[in-house]
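Handout, tutorial session.
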Amino acid sequence: MNKTKNILLEKFDLAPFSKVKTEDYLYAFKELIKEKKKEINSIISNTDNPTYENTIEALEFSGEKLDRLSKMFFNVNSAETNPKIQKIAQEVSPMLSEFGNDIILNNDLFLRVKSVNNQKSKLNLSAEQMTLLDLSYKSFSRNGANLDDTKKETLREIDKELSSLTLRYSENVLAATNDFELHLTNLEDLKGLPKGEIEAASVLAKKKGKEGWIITLAYPSYIPFMKYAENRDLRKAIQIASGSKCFKKNKFNNEANVLKISKLRHQRANLLGYSTHADFTLEERMAMTPLKVYTFLNDLLKKAKPFAESEFNQLQDFAKNLDGLDHLESWDYMYYSEKLKNKLFNLDDEKLKPYFKLENVIHGAFSVAKKLFGLSFVEVKNIETYHKDVKTYEVKDKENELVAIFYADFHPREGKRNGAWMDCLKSQKVKNGINERPHIINVCNFTSPTNSTPSLLTFSEVTTLFHEFGHGLHGMLANTVYPSLSGTNVYWDFVELPSQILENWCYEKECLDDFATHYITGEPLPIEFIDKIKESSTFLQGIATLRQISLGLLDMSWHAVDPSKITNVKENESYANIKTRLFPDIDICCTSVSFSHIFSGFGDYSSGYYSYKWAEILDADAFEYFKENGIFNIEIGKSFQDNILSKGGTENPMKLYKRFRGKEPQADALLKRSGLSKS
């Protein structure tokens, strides 16, 4: 291939999606790895004494083109993949892992970094520079630089294998999700579903060249069916299909991958001198130790479980009185909780959805950003994207200066993995006196519009959009010198604060009044609905909290122990969740084999799933501060921007939080908000 024709080898600002052929990626990765190798060699061969500038900064800014390529490629692999892209990913991932080890295990480079680290007390560095130096040294010492050559080679092999296994795990989850469809030809089978959901299922069937209706495991299809379908047998069928994906004895089975990944992670941690993978990971988290995570989760379990059991009994009694149901199963939960919610609050998603047209909710998120941080979002059509559904915006500040480029990708597709996430296509940094602004993307899976209806969101989807937009703001408002400390490059149990705090605005009348209007009549969301949204915010929160605790404990059951004796994935999972189980277990279902947060490598919450609940304490405490002074208080908004959003990982997160809040966070606000406090 003629490398001059491969735009990925050039320096570019906006990602040039339309100019890239799939085969360009692999060639570009190989060439840009070579290019970064030359940059690393020039640092090592520098005959001058090691300094902060010629070693730490030089290392930080090396491989910029490779970094841009990686961000672009792996975003496409998550949001618009295909077999060719996946094949390249399988080749590239171990290649990048091996190259990463070439750097981390290079003794000459480590000696230069170590030399600078040894003289740090004399260097008069800023807080951000000191953080970068500390992290640079730790990136070597925590990843094998002090090992002998034999152990270094073992580490290389482990990392190479892990990169392939986690990618294969992720591909299996996507493939198994796409592999299932419930094809219905009898309208009676859709009884209970709202008209819009039936129409969406019909549109999906037509796309696949079939008559009738199709339900899939993609969330916009799966969730409404589980909430509204009266046919209990079909709810059971689709629930089991979802719970058993990657657990069936077929080519998508992930049991061996789970066992191998957990064992390799443990072996890697031992090699580096740590008892478990969790000990290794948590050393660089706010929680610090597995014991502290277990203490946190078990304390929360003690508070939440009585509420959860009471809620479960209430739901079971309700189902029995309504339909004579003797035993509540997991496939009944969404269906009866929606009916109970409607009875208690006279409020269900179908009443709310007409007020949450996707475009209006986007406007609402943008409006919050404007009121708190002075940001304006202007949609532009001349920015290239990887799919026609992706919208693009220029983000400007009060002085009309460019703050960021924002990409928004909101609807499900076959080549797009389930869920919602924020990603970065270009990091923010300051180089040669120029503050290079970031390119941020939000990816979600909301119901697509039909011929007769626009995309209307459930309230849960509204909070999801605000959540991911909060991550997006963390990236957009980044204002650091170094890219590795910019935006969401923070401790993993701190990263959810900006996202989770933004969800709080969705419950406030002052915010809802700005965007929640009926998509046909233009009427604002009635005040009684707003009151009920707020009143219902604690509905079944005990069960929801127990679910999050169970996932946190499941994560720790794989990563805070020696997994070498675990031979059965299901048995380990059942034991881990014994204290949190409310519904009868289903033998043929298993969470671990599709628990992408901790096993796919994407985002990698391994030993870190607890952080969602950990960050809820932070966000509830922080939002209490806003509520005490006005949810659109400009001064507090500026303080949140200056001390949290713009600082990235430049300082210890507790220092940043205390600077914003004036004190350490207290759990009282979360327990009160969740209805888990008896006071």
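The second record follows below. Compare its token runs with those of the first.
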Amino acid sequence: MAERIAIEHLLTQGRPADFPVAFREGQVLTFADFEARASGWRAAFEGHTGQRFALYFEDTFEFAAALLGAWHAGRCVYLPAEVQPTTRERLRLQVDGFAGQIPSSTKLLKFQQGAPRTQWAPLSSEAQALVVYTSGSSGEPAAIPKQLGQLTREVATLADLFDARLGSDTGAGRVLATVSHQHIYGLLFRVLWPLTSGRPFLARSLPYPEDIVAELTHGPAALIASPAHLKRLPDTLDWASVRGNLRSVFSSGGPLPGDALHACRELLGQAPVEVYGSSETGGIAWRQRARDEALSWRTMPGVEVRLTDDALAVRSAHLPDGGWLQTEDRARLLPEGFELLGRMDRLLKLEEKRVSLSAMERALLESDLVREARVVPLSEGNRLTLGVVAVLGPTGRYLHADSGKHFLNQAIRKHLASQFEPSVLPRRFRYLEAMPVNAQGKSTEAALVALFDSRRPPLRVLEQTADRAVLSIETPASLPYFKGHFPEKAILPGVAQIEWALQLGRELFTLPPEFLRMEAVKFQQLIVPGTQLTLELTWTQAKGSLQFKFTSEAGTHGSGRILLGEVRG
């Protein structure tokens, strides 16, 4: 097993020049490659007067080199989870510059090709090295600063707990991941822990189960995943031929549902190691459920927990000081650890009455109408209302198919009316095949609220696979696209069809971030208010092509291909 090296000494102590650090498209990237890239990025950061820089890379090897280069240049790194326009605008007020694959950004730092190999000095554990962001699952993402020493201590904890699970042949076992390194979980598990323990990692993420199977054919590996990915493992893939190479599976970012746990045991041959923590607290506890009834969490070494008003409080070396940090998770202490009982109530004042969104979500899950549910506040002018985003259960699916959405809406309101006053009951509903998640496997409040955008048409998913979906779309006259287009006759513009295809494609598939171009776009027939449309979407990952086709009883209305790709620096 390779010697562990603390983050502060990764480049000063170093490893042999030919030591494997990462793999990219079959190529081995060595420590000499890593040191050369870190030198070039260090020179780039030292050539700029700013101290705070936002980093965003798709490639994990390049990200790791830029991260170490920035730290050795004495810079603080900000890690956005994504680089959508609103995120970039917010970052511009917080940082002095940007580096990586960030579109439409001013003066991106460029890697300094041919920079001389520098003399590395140990990093300071007290340095304010990093700012990460909360997931935004319950509001706006909040910035969380981290000292380098916090990261070092947490990585050491992970190594003490889990190194042995990955085996002693550190040069052969690889670290694979479905989650992004732009979040604290991915940063720790797929970048810093492998670097310090001497385990090579794959430079790209694996968004599709087919990718996981393909990579596992190459030899022993660990998988860093999230519940969002593990609950979508198809049993049609040949897991039996590769699960012998799977040393360990890790999951974090939310509760792992029971059906996903069963699928992992059956398909992957093992239960995942579930890790509980947050951006604020760092890692708190872990568990591996070989049995369904094993619900308790075991605290990590050096972590203390206690209850304050039934909510878990934490004190550990992963925090910036020696104080206690209060979480929003209800818990019950047990001799062997603790059991989580759900989030503390998210309280909202609605119609002069206080309502708990968390309690309403729990009430929804008590029925057999829905399998997953989120309740979100919606602004309608000066009025605040509630919306429900849900994945239907068997009874809900039957009601939706047999009696329609309006009847199902009323059934849900009737179920909630036994616990909540009529004035606070949800007024708007969206039913999905799966909750929208980001690269960290989180359903952000912003993404859920966006589902209620008036420009989004009422729709129903008729068929869905990993790369194809068929949807039934209504086009009521109330859609804003019909207003003023055209004055003499209301029709749906072609740009709306393209926007719908791309928006719904992003909800249904994991698509690359950048729009490149369109091909073979045709609009054959007009779409007038009241037309019942069928939209067929086909995603071809190898070509980066999202093909769309709008049809109705009248025939084909519009079709074409949208080509997408990664952001290029």
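Points raised in discussion: The chain is about 25% helix and 30% strand.
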